[in-house]
Amino acid sequence: MSSQHTISRWSARIVEASWLLALTLIPIYFNLYSARHFEPDKAAVLRSLALVGAAAALIWLLSRVDQRSTATQRIGWDWATLRKHPLFWPITGYTTIFIVTTITSVTPATSLWGSYQRMQGLYTFLSYLVFALLIATTLRSPAQRERFISLNLSTATVVALYGIMQHYQLDPLPWRGDVISRVASTLGNSIFVAAYLIMIVPLALYRLFAALAAIRTAPVPTQPSAEWRWAIIRVLLWLAGALLILATVKFSVAVRTVDFRYWWCFPGAIFCASALWWLLTVSGSSALPRWPLVLTLIYLLGFGIAFAVNAASGIQQVAAAEVAANALDWWLWLILAVVALVGAYGLSMLGRAPQEPSRLTWQLRATGSTIVLGLILTTIFFSQSRGPWIGLGAGLFLFISLALWFGKQRFAADGDQRNSRRLGQLLAGWVAITLTVGGFLIVFNVSDAPFFHRLRDVPYIGRMGRLLEIESGTGLVRRLIWFGDEHAGGTLALITSDPLRLFIGWGPESMFVAFNRFYPPSLANVEARGASPDRSHQALLDEVVTKGLLGLAMYLWVIGSLTMYCLHQLRTATSWRHQLLVIAILSAVTAHLVEGLTGIPIVATLMMFWMLLGLSVAVAHMESVQPSVTITEPQTIPAKPTGRQPARRNPPRPASRQADKSMLGVACLIGLCTTALIWWLNLQPIYADMRFQQAQSYADQGQGSAQTLLAALNEYIGTIRANPSEDFYYLHLTRTLMTLANTLRAQGSALGDAGQVHLDTLLQLDGIPAVTAFVQRSSPIRLLAYAEAALLRAHQISPLNKDHYANLGRVNTFWYGWTGDVQRLYTALQWYERVATIAPRDVTLINERAGVLMQLAEYATTSGDAHQAGTFFQQADELLQTSAQLDPRYGDTALRRGDLIRFRTGDLDAATTFYVQAIERSPQQVVDNLDRIARALSSRPDLLSQLRRAFAVQAERAEQTLADVKGKPERAIEIPTLVDQAGRLYAAVAHLAVQAGDIAGAVEPYARAVAIQPENVALSQQYTLVLSETLQYDAAIAETQRMLAVLRNRGRTSEVAQVEQLKAVLEQVRR
User: Fold this and answer.
1) What is the pLDDT at residue 63?
2) Contacting residues for 1003 by C-beta, under 8 A, at least 6 apart
3) Are the beta carbons of 210 and 577 closer than 8 angstroms?
4) Which DSSP letter does residue 357 get?
5) In which residue ranges of the chain is pLDDT below 70?
6) Cα 334 from Cα 173, distance rounded (Å)
7) How does DSSP assign 699-710, residue by residue?
8) Which residues contact 91 (CB under 8 A, 6 or more apart)?
9) Non-local CB neighbours of 259 within 8 Å, separated by 6+ positions
10) What end-to-end distance do the CA atoms of the chain give, in Å?
11) Which of 54, 305, 610, 728 is the S-S candidate for 132 at Cβ 3.0 to 4.6 Å?
12) Does residue 547 contact residue 505 with C-beta atoms inside 8 Å?
């Protein structure tokens, strides 16, 4: 066999492997070592596999150039045929619009490569398209078709199983959100996981219905023991892959290292599981291929060596039981995976399965499909995601309706009128049930009857009675994003604001910056304040925003053409299995489209959409053309024996040998270029984000440690070097530089001057020693100058991002606070004025601008320029009034208005009125400013008492909220924050009581604060001192003894001495 044939065969296998791996890796894989974990990492894997598949396909095509183009060697497509295909021009039109809108985008780079949070740009879209083309042109055999289905079902089962584990609190990972009442599984979001799984449900139904149909004509079992054995073998193979995946997830939590050296374990486990699941479609009448076993054993060997080496070097440690309670048994799961794998191969050696599946085999397959379907539906239910639920309903209705309809026609065509009538009756009953359920949902959502009111409070089911709720929750969020409020028009205003953009859109991934001018201020009260949405939560609106009406038209053309293409196949198909698969494709696409009416298409669902589109083309080709030798397995034709055969055994002719060598060289060159592209375009951004995650962990630990801050700075610099075009990273570099500058200033270093700074000089530093030397050479002001330079670079990369303007304003305000250089305030003001044109209704930025004007007014007052001070005060007042009109619920506005009145007129009563309003709206923010407010009101105990009463009300509410949450396991993640908030509020009540001279009144709030935060040393000491001041020495000493016991039990020995000293003083005073 020539090397060209070998290259052709292996490249064909790699093509298929690329899309099979995409089916498993994209839904399951997430990266614990990166900051984003989910969508961008999945997109990077998808892009990489698409490049691999495209490169392999190119090599395959080139390897066929010098071979004869016989009918058995062609793929089955030529240009003339391609142009006539009903999906060719719709897809071409949509792709063209995607490219054009990327070029004309307001953020072209982001539209091309994708945003930091999503990575859904043109590059990712072309990756989807590559997979659609590869499947459409290379999937040619029933075995390939069944591998596509089997790996989808195997993957979805793992996703579903992990979601069920989350619901029953068996998840080894300590996620920050609620994954108990609303599971998120491996997709990171409850809506996302349900959106993916509803596209798999029709494929599971296809398998179930196909098995049930095969049972009718299958022969009776002749070797039932062999069939049972091979059914167990398949279960063990799936189980081995699933256990291996879950074991590595647990391992990632249980075993900690100083870096991300174990990054390869999880994707490697999925890779091995994919190989094992590939065996599920291998016929039991032949021996199991051993390469999946060898691959898995090599992986396990590498894992074992890495674990042993790292353990011996002392750079890894086992997490504490309270942190990783569900993860410490990872080794047991790994052993079980190996046992399942060995068991499967061991059983396969006991004998073969019958050549033709019997009725028993099909019954077992139907049972397996039912179990898979049950697991998937259970996880969809536990997601509590109403959009996917409705999408699931649409998909189920279409699948069962079409299956019954075409089944009825098939029986009628075969002359089986009895079964045809039965299916007709079932279809009528199914439609009646659907109409009944639909009618019930309508009544459930519009009726005010007491029964329905009670039903809406029932967990899970009650959510379906709030579909029309637009005054709270996610319904309010969507209404505000779509239609805006009385101050801004939201997405519809964005779409209609520019006639040209109405037709061509603002560009893929552009909504994050384009939406700012139309941001409704009310949205800040139900979503994260200051965060601009990057999606409208409505797929069709997103198409118009990003690609205009032309893009929407092309998208609907693709959908409509695909629908008509599938319906045509259904009418002309001769095979029931083919009809079922086309129905499944159509149902999955329908579920996806309906879910998208209130959701966000993600990497997994968009990949499935385009792959199913490619599958629809492939199965149509399989149905219409008898496949011969295909791209998947090119064969060599042996030479015809002759009397001179020994002469034909001579080495190939030089020209043939030269062609083989040339083809091998071309293949190697393409492989090297593909590897380089995968690293530069896909893996390097993920590597940068993994370093960013590590930098964040150092920064979080290093608030009081210069060494840890230096390590964080080194990692941030490395992050930016790996991905210098990501503006988000510069913000964190700035924050670390400012923290280091503040640390130097606190240590007594002279402020110094800025001098000339070159950011690239900083970014070239590599290693902690170099970074340390740089910081030691720098003054605090010079570090501030580098921080400003980093922000300027971020602004240069993304000039429409409002955060960069705001941060430049903040760093200049911070600079003024150190140096008193008023020019810095004027510079800050300029940045805030510039951002006002980009985000005119962002009340946070309006308030910060007003704050700069107030500082300028104070400076002018100090300088004796009363007129200028009055002008600045007036401008600040107008801005704050505007802010109050835009968002009356924003507590920061009331706080600043109180400060403004106090600075401008000295009216403490009026200022206190606003402070009370601020406490009612944003109590935690007022706590942060309490010391300066209390000092300003120190001459008025009556006003301090007003604040005290307002804080007492908020403290009681916070304590009640905490008590409510403690009874709900799914909200356990909120407890630490709520504990801190309640404790701080009671401490504020006590502090104000002391400031007002009512020391006895501080005892109770301090006692409640300590009860809420029993391990807070500062609160305990304040409580102790108040007890001492009120002559309650025994109680004070008892509190110190309690605190000492807590500290010793927790191993916090460094704090023990201070408490012991306080106890000794109290005991001396008591005598």
Assistant:
1) 82
2) 990, 1023, 1026, 1027, 1030, 1032
3) yes
4) -
5) 1-4, 65-78, 625-659, 702-704, 1071
6) 17
7) HHHGGG-HHHHH
8) 129, 132, 558
9) 694
10) 102
11) 610
12) yes
Q: What is the CA radius of gyration of the chain?
A: 34
Pairwise CA distance, residues 156 & 202, whole Å = 12
DSSP state of 751: -
Q: What is the pLDDT of residue 76?
A: 52
Query: DSSP strand E in 315-396: where?
Result: 316-318
Q: Which two tokens stand for residue 962?
A: 């905490």
Task: Name residue, tokens 């894997």.
Answer: 45
d(CA 832, CA 282): 65
91 with 559: CB under 8 angstroms? no
Cα(954)–Cα(888) distance, rounded to whole angstroms?
A: 19
| 621: CB partners within 8 A, 6+ apart | 76, 136, 140, 627
Chain centroid to Cα 1021, Å, comes to 43
CA angle 572, 575, 577 (to 5 degrees): 120
**Alpha helices in 887-1032, H assignment, sequence order:** 891-904, 908-921, 923-928, 930-936, 941-966, 975-995, 1003-1012, 1017-1029
Tokens representing residue 607 in the block: 């990949």
Question: Which of the 8 DSSP states describes residue 171?
Answer: -
β partners of residue 255:
318
- Condensed to tens digits (0 to 9), the pLDDT of residues 1009-1030 reads 999 999 888 899 999 999 988 9
**Residue 1052: predicted pLDDT:** 79
Tokens of 836: 């006002």
CA distance 266 to 248: 6
Structure confidence at residue 594 (pLDDT): 97
Rounded distance between C-alpha atoms, residue 649 and residue 925, angstroms: 87
Orientation angle between helical segments 142-167 and 359-383, nearest 10 degrees: 40
Return the closest-CA partner of residue 120 out of 604, 608, 609.
Answer: 604
DSSP H or E segment with residue 1063: helix 1056-1070
CA torsion, points 1002, 1006, 1009, 1015, in degrees to nearest 10? 160
Cα distance between residue 1042 and residue 1020, in whole Å: 9
∠ at Cα 889 (885, 892), nearest 5°? 90
Tokens of 294: 């060898």
> Using CA atoms, how far apart are residues 498 and 490, in angstroms rounded to an integer?
14
**Which two tokens mark 806?**
């705001």
What burial class does residue 913 get, using C-beta atoms within 10 Å of its C-beta: 0-12 exposed, 13-18 middle, 19+ buried? Answer: middle
Q: Provide the residue type at 319 as one letter.
A: A
Distance CA 378, CA 376 (A): 5
Residue with tokens 């095509």: 61
Q: CB of 141 within 8 A of CB of 75?
A: no
Tokens of 963: 């008590």
DSSP 522: G
**Cα–Cα distance, 185 to 48 (Å, whole number):** 23
Question: Under DSSP, is residue 317 helix (H, G, I), strand (E, B) or coil?
Answer: strand
What is the SS3 assignment for 385?
coil
C-alpha 154: how far from chain center: 22
Tokens of 481: 């994003």
